[in-house]
Write a structure and sequence with these properties.
It is found in: Cytoplasm. It comes from Kitasatospora arboriphila. It is a single chain. By secondary structure, the chain is α/β, with parallel strands linked by helices. The protein contains 14 helices and 16 strands. The protein is 37% helix and 17% strand. The strands form 4 sheets. It has a 7-stranded mixed sheet, with helices on both faces. A 4-stranded mixed sheet has the order 1-2-3-15. A 3-stranded antiparallel sheet has the order 13-14-16, with helices on one face. Helix 9 links the parallel strand 10 (248-252) and strand 11. Helix 4 packs parallel to helix 11 (321-335), helix 5 crosses helix 10 (297-304) and helix 13 (383-392) runs antiparallel to helix 14 (414-430). The protein is globular.
Length: 431
């Protein structure tokens, strides 16, 4: 490997990291390799250390790293083809993946658009909704409603439905489409439905039904917008309101899909299905970038009857065979084991490990849902100090805003879970 300091110098001079300035002001860790749940860092003079990954590489690597089943799926597909265009062509990995997604997602989702990132999946979902209403002769239905505290990606239309005040996307307020926002859903997965909040939501949907194309939410777990959990009852309410007022319902399950919240899809907690669903992150087990937007036959048929009878979208790497092959392997690996037991084990481990922090100075709240653990502080976290404190405990974390949180791979054993909890505690104290 290249000299670490030389590599970091080149990185600082040329590489723009996510959510960072240019040139960078924080020195990143250099990862030399990864295996299981561990990241192996390169160090000066050949020195190395390992960190337990408490983030699943932004929630995607649910099976950890270098899993033999997933590695073999990539190698086998590479021996056939790495990529072909999807316009006018098709191939087995993509067809199998689409069929599997239809089988495992809630009825009546029937059709699958394979995108190349989560943000693009949301772009496609919103485009589907807008084009549907245009095609069926209701062009005035072009606005989108969501609740505050949400996050749906960093491309333009997804930014318009992210929290307009709590995130960085307020910079684009004068450029983005003006959407409708209701307050954040009341917190608490097990909390009863707040009738006053339900009334506010119902009134706003009824008032704007003639201009609303869709409602989009992150079901049960609001991720990067605040790591908040809410009752599945609000999803049932949204389904009822959308049916009553002729509005499409979109669930952004990019973060929650494939078991992270304790159900295979967060929609399953509520027993309802959206008209459009977005998937990503864990879709390929963290190996390659891929996402999917699913919709009902009604949405697809409506678009097909329009003046432009095709969905006007087509990424260059749509349906990439390598990504589709490893996605098939990842889903097979997940469903071929008792994944619910593993997620419950992680939930129990995080609950036990993080509970003592509830009484720690500076801690506002501690909450766990599925394989997600969150410690919310009463002040903005010092990310550099918190990250280094966790690293000293042998754990990789990426705090943000006022939160130190973890979403470990499902293969994390109990001993490593305890170490992750210790890393969260150290980061919370230092931050």
């Amino acid at each position: 490997m290249a000299d670490v300091q030389h590599l970091l110098g080149l990185d600082r001079a040329h590489v723009w990291h996510p959510y960072g300035p240019m040139p960078g002001t924080v020195t990143p860790y250099v990862v030399e390799s990864a295996s299981g749940v561990r990241l192996r860092l390169a160090g000066p003079a050949g020195g190395h250390r390992e960190l337990i990954d408490g983030m699943s590489s932004w929630w995607a690597a649910i099976h950890g790293y270098r899993h033999p089943v997933l590695d073999e799926a990539v190698r086998e597909q590479l021996g056939r083809m790495s990529h072909v265009m999807f316009g006018g062509l098709t191939h087995e990995p993509a067809v199998r993946l689409a069929a599997t997604l239809v089988d495992i997602t809630p009825e009546p989702l029937r059709h699958v658009f394979l995108a190349d990132s989560g943000s693009v999946a949301v772009e496609v979902a919103l485009k589907m909704c807008l084009q549907y209403w245009q095609s069926v002769g209701r062009p005035a239905k072009r606005r989108v409603l969501t609740w505050r505290g949400g996050y749906h990606g960093d491309t333009f239309h997804p930014m318009s439905v992210c929290d307009p005040d709590g995130g960085m996307h307020h910079l684009w307020g004068g450029v983005l489409p003006r959407q409708l926002f209701v307050p954040e859903p009341p917190a608490g997965f097990d909390a009863p439905l707040d009738e006053a909040y339900a009334g506010v939501l119902a009134d706003l949907v009824a008032q704007h039904a003639d201009e609303l194309a869709a409602i989009i939410v992150e079901p049960v777990v609001q991720g990067a917008g605040g790591m908040r959990f809410h009752s599945p009852g609000y999803l049932r309410l949204l389904r009822e309101l959308c049916d009553e007022h002729g509005v499409l319902l979109v669930f952004d399950e990019i973060a929650t899909g494939f078991g992270r919240s304790g159900a295979l899809f967060a929609a399953d907690h509520a027993g309802v299905s959206p008209d459009v669903m977005c998937l990503g992150k864990a879709l390929t087990g963290g190996y390659l970038t891929m996402a999917a937007t699913l919709c009902t036959a009604e949405v697809a048929d409506g678009i097909s009857r329009g003046e432009v009878p095709v969905l006007a979208h087509g990424p260059t790497f749509m349906g990439n065979p390598l990504a589709a092959a490893v996605a098939n392997a990842s889903i097979g690996l997940l469903l071929g084991q008792d994944w619910q037991l593993e997620v419950k084990r992680i939930e129990a481990g995080l609950s036990a490990g993080l509970a003592p922090l509830a009484d720690a100075p500076g801690v506002l709240d501690v909450r766990v849902q599925g394989a997600i653990g969150v410690v919310q502080l009463d002040h903005p976290v010092d990310m550099a100090a918190a990250t280094e404190a966790a690293a000293r405990e042998g754990v990789w974390l990426r705090p943000f805003r006022d939160m130190v949180y973890t979403m470990p791979p499902y293969v994390t054993d109990d001993q490593d879970l305890a170490r992750i909890a210790a890393g969260v505690a150290a980061a919370a104290v230092a931050g």
